[in-house]
Amino acid sequence: MPSLKKYFVVALLLITANAFAKNPLTITSPDKKISFSLNTDKAGLYYKISYKGMVLAENSRLNISFKNGGPFANDVTFKVVHAEKLTEDYELITGHASKIHSECNRAIIPVREQSGAKRMLYVEVRIFNDGAAFRYVMPKQVGMDKVEITAETNTFNLSQNPKATVLLRDNFTTSHEGIYTKTTLDKLAADTLMDMPALFAFPGGAYMAITEAALHNYAGMYLIKHNGVLESRLSPLPKEPGIAVKATLPHNSPWRVMMISDRVGAFLESNILTNLNEPNKLKDLSWLKPGKTTFPWWNGNVTPDWLNAPGNNYVTNMYYVDFCAKNKIEYHSVVEYGLHEWYVNDGSGFQPGPNADPSKAVPGLDMQQICDSAAARGVGIRVWVHFYALYPKLEQTFAQYEKWGIKGLMCDFMDRDDQEMVNMQEEVLQCAAKHKLHIQFHGAYKPTGMQRTYPNEFSREGTLNYENDKWGNLVTPDTDLDILFTRLLAGSTDYHLGGFRAATPQNFKVNYTRPMVMGTRCHMLAMYVALENPLGMACDYPEAYVGQSGFDFLQQVPTTWDETRVLDAEPSQFLTIARRKGSEWYIGAITNSAKRDLKTKLDFLPAGNYTAEIWSDAPDANVDANHLVKEVKPVTRETTLSTLMASGGGQVVRIYKGK
User: Fold this and answer.
1) What is the secondary structure of 186-216 as a DSSP string?
2) pTM summary value
3) Pick from 57, 47, 206, 217: which is nearest to 138 by CA?
4) DSSP secondary structure string, 525-556?
5) How many CB atoms lie within 10 A of CB 515?
6) Range of 102's domain?
7) pLDDT tens-digit readout, 183-199
8) pLDDT digits (tens, 9 = 90+) for 13-46
9) Which residues pair with 200 in a beta bridge?
10) Where does the record locate the signal sequence feature (predicted)?
11) Which of 197, 648, 275, 278 is CA-nearest to residue 460?
12) Is residue 519 in some structural domain?
């Protein structure tokens, strides 16, 4: 990277034999509210973080270890450097906003061991108004042109015993789906992996979310509580469990990010992760078109009785394509029929067999004909593919997709975030961009802001979502709230939205075909605004929508946004969020299993007269969860809306200029 080489040259020019000293270094955010202090002792580097004068993390270690030479901790000293202000403006296709202004104070700190091999590295620190981040930058040096990193055991020694909302994991092989644990830090299970982002609420009113940014050619990071203190853990290489990262120098780690605010909603507005990523590497973006998509696998491939010979064929897919064309649904996803993929595969249970070939459709399915017919109706075709069927035939498959006219795909079943898998996923993005394909990673690790660098990364799953309603009852309005304040902080998440058979907990039944969803229909509608997902699904079958209350909102709601504002929020309880697309605003409010009456001020609107279309839970939604009421009324920025939600309910509002 030219920018890193520039850092090395500048820093090395400043360093002399006696330039290193044991002096503390403090860097603050531009607004002076966040303070990061770095120091050393006999055990190595440690840092402290304060917010508005309140210590959030004290005596926390920076620890990185190598196969050759062991931990970087041999009487280390660092050069005290002056922080510089870094500002940047850029645009995003997907994210919380479309036009981003980034501002932080940055320092690149040379650190050297005074004994042993006398190795050297840099710690780069960036402090934003909404968080702090650091990473290791490893230059090439005498006797050290390659590294094998065995561990990063950075610690996050949080003060005040905060309340934690975390997803515990058994091991590093995971789809990142599960129920969140909510307890105080001292009661968290010891030596158990925690997924990221993880949320911590301090008694003094501050919040911290810990995650990582710019995961590139490196191992994914987790947390663990060890000896009472949070430590990081790196996902090991599958065939070399003692090694996490192999790299040729120069090289750098991802950013270790601590989002910080006294307003938890600020984390859902924050662009800190994309700020920490490299700029867009794709020159032509004109072909990238986010939008809503069908996903018939979720509903069980329901077709009407009048459809001639349903199956993995033209007529079944065109039944869904015609529905899309009539109802402002941009994409149809070709997935499977009768539990067999749309492509050639001699495996079972959607797992690839030895002759799986996702560049070839099953007999009877003419993909060229489907793509051409859909394009004539203004609908794009997407497909689902198993990662391990795709990767061995990556170039061959993507070249065929481009020839057919496929616009993108869901890539599924990775369930790893070791360095090898991280690199393979980046290779998928690069090859997909070459062939003008967008990517939706399913069964994948959290986002790390890489959609700035590769804008064709539209969405990632890594969360328990409504697909689980086909076989269980774990997904509830309460779990939706937990995910919004943890996993969603990292970015877009791939939920199977659009189930129009809402049910109260007592009426919910597990159905593989025509699944139910728990919570009210208004709760489902609000998830289109609450979640960030450039490929929001309409995953039910056409007859489930046509003529149904609330379908008009699903047709209208965008999937990308120009601005995001959290109006009111309390973790695990409720969220009211407003997102702007052009001149229109959309508000989504959801609650957990408790009924709730909130007041939503519209003072974020510019001056003028507006019309609000409001979809709310009906008074009997606690009995008929699909019942909602719609109201149209004039509003201004002085208006306060009443947001009355049933248990597991929600509300959505569309606001546009004029009457």
Assistant:
1) GGSPTT-EE-SSEEEE-TTS-EEEEEEE---
2) 0.95
3) 217
4) HHHHHHS--TT-EE-S-HHHHTT-TTHHHHHH
5) 24
6) 2-275
7) 999 999 999 999 999 99
8) 333 334 455 568 999 999 999 999 999 999 999 9
9) 164, 208
10) 1-21
11) 197
12) no
